[in-house]
Amino acid sequence: MTAALAVYLSACSTMPDDEEAEPMVSVSNDSRPLSSFALPPDQQDCYDRTSEPYTAVVDSHFHPRPFGGSAIPAPELFNFFDNTTVRFVNYFGIGQVLDLQSGCTYYLDCPGVPASPSIKNDFVNGMEVMAYPHENLHITLSMTFMDLAHPENITSLIELYDKEYPGMFSWSGELNVMKQALLGNLHEPATKESIDGWAPFMAVLQERGIPVTLHSDLGNDANPTEFLPLMEYVLASYPDNKIVWAHMGLSKELANMNPYEHVTIMQRLLGDYPNLMLDISWDVLFNAYHEWGPVFINFFNSHPTRILPGTDFVAAGTKSFDQYAKELDVTSRALKAMDDNAFRHIALGENYFRLMGLDYYAPDICPTTAAVSAGQ
Ligand SMILES: [Zn+2]
Predict the structure, then answer these.
(1) How far is the CA of 207 from the centre of ligand 1 (A)?
(2) Pairing of strands 115-117, 96-98
(3) Is CB count within 10 Å lower at the N or C end of the chain?
(4) Across the chain, where does the E strand assignment appear?
(5) What is the pLDDT of residues 60-83, one digit of tens each?
(6) Domains of the chain from N-terminus onward
(7) What is the 93 CA–ligand 1 centroid distance (Å)?
(8) Taking CA 303 as the corner, what is the angle to CA 226 and CA 21, rounded to the nearest 5 degrees?
């Protein structure tokens, strides 16, 4: 066993289902400011993994508003990020809004209440990003309104965004292709026919270089690959789009899949589709698969340029900083075990910057740490 895997496995013993696990997120005084990432790597201080945090600087999967009810106020939310290592965040709606008359705030608490794709939260997010200064945070606004089962009006709604928020939305998603957890709230999965109907809006996204994050369950415990053909159909239909597969297809409904089979499928698709990226957000990976840590760490180290980190935090007004800090910590524990090259690309933002064409750079890893890694 390598040292890195030993670290990962020891971290697994205090994984999220262990109530004693405390967040180990550093505060802003120790963390790098946004401005430092604007410098070329040779002008930044190298990153010392022995003394600096293992938590990511990018949260590429974050929901600033909940399915219903109040959200965490923007200035408070910006303080959350300021008090962690996160300097880059994707604002994912959330796109699916519970029926406003229901009074519901979380879809699983309200079976039968429709949760429908909507422009509501995107528009609020667009206003808040402009209304509040946040000099230590780079926010990427995302279009989350797309109904993938009914794509007919998507391009006309993109025109509405262009008119109301010109040039401000540079990501799309998280959009649901097939999300079993949401079926009780009348979520209508995409079909091969509706996927064919995405062509006009996928052409717009491709032309603008806008990535799209898709939630598409791989399957469930009864049939781990039940919905794989749907995602493969998407990838085969739109190979030139920047597609990010949320949670690598994992979900609470799929807890017992053979990890080698899972990784084999991911490797094949990464090979077949060079524009595909994998989102390793959400603590489901670490809840369901923590005993399989080495399988995944080796996979991440083998594909360092194809992975994006994130929390999948939903910023409901009832939540506190500690909850965000804990989710950031839990979802970053795999980063801690990665080799230096994968850590720089994934945790320190290099993949995110290149995917988005941003003028930011991940720092180099300090040589002393690199020497330790090389000696594994
Ligand atoms: Zn999400």
Answers:
(1) 25
(2) antiparallel
(3) N
(4) 58-63, 88-91, 96-98, 115-117, 138-143, 169-178, 212-216, 243-245, 276-279, 307-308, 313-314
(5) 999 999 988 899 999 999 999 999
(6) 55-374 (3.20.20.140)
(7) 9
(8) 80
